[in-house]
């Protein structure tokens, strides 16, 4: 059992690790989509995706990877905005959750998926949990800001 000070510190540290670790991974994944060997790696997953099958035929392999990369970079950036813009962070976190659900669907849509590939994808269960947690926490921060704003208005309202 920890005393309340240590509990608060652990909560803060875990929050920073979860949120900014998730943001960092999305930024990293996005940047990697612009590196040639990773462009061909993306094709393997998107070709049989229920949601992304159209990307490569429409934009080509390089353009498709770049589109996904830009979305991932935006997602990571929005998640990181939590201290200054919790609404944007909530949106980015929901984008991340959607991306993880899409990625997990590859377990069922990719033909001939071997143990190495499924092991690579299974980590996304943890990332999905982190994204959902981040969305809920940012949503709570939005509500807290709204409530604090309405209380300050009530305090200064002469009527």
Strand content: under 5%
Total domains = 1
Helix share, percent: over 70%
Cα end-to-end separation: 48 Å
In total, the number of strands is: 0
**How much is the radius of gyration in Å?**
19 Å
Structural class: mainly alpha
Order of helices and strands: HHHHHH
Extract low-pLDDT stretches: none
Apparent shape:
elongated
Oligomer: single chain
Q: Which whole number gives the mean pLDDT?
A: 88
Biggest beta sheet attributes: none
Counted by DSSP, the helix tally is: 6
Summarize it.
The protein is mainly alpha-helical and 159 residues long.
Please give a handful of descriptors for the protein shown.
6 helices; single chain; mainly alpha
Topology:
Blueprint (H helix, E strand, L loop, with lengths): L3 H29 L3 H11 L8 H26 L5 H24 L5 H8 L1 H33 L3
Helix pairs in contact: 1-3, 2-3, 3-4, 4-5, 4-6
Description:
With 159 residues, the chain is mainly α. It has one domain. The chain is 82% helix and 0% strand. It has 6 helices and no strands. Helix 4 (86-109) runs antiparallel to helix 6. It is elongated and about 55 Å long. The N and C termini lie far apart (48 Å).
């Amino acid at each position: 059992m920890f005393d309340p000070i240590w509990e608060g510190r652990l909560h803060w540290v875990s929050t920073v690790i979860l949120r900014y670790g998730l943001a960092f991974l999305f930024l990293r994944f996005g940047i990697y989509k612009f590196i040639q060997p990773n462009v061909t790696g993306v094709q393997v997953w998107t070709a049989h995706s229920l949601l992304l099958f159209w990307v490569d035929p429409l934009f080509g392999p390089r353009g498709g990877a770049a589109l996904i990369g830009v979305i991932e970079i935006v997602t990571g950036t929005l998640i990181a905005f939590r201290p200054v813009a919790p609404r944007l962070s909530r949106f980015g976190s929901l984008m991340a959750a959607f991306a993880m659900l899409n990625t997990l669907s590859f377990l069922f849509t990719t033909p001939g998926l071997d143990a190495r590939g499924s092991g690579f994808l299974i980590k996304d269960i943890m990332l999905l949990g982190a994204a959902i947690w981040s969305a809920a926490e940012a949503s709570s921060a939005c509500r807290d800001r709204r409530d604090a704003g309405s209380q300050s208005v009530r305090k200064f309202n002469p009527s």
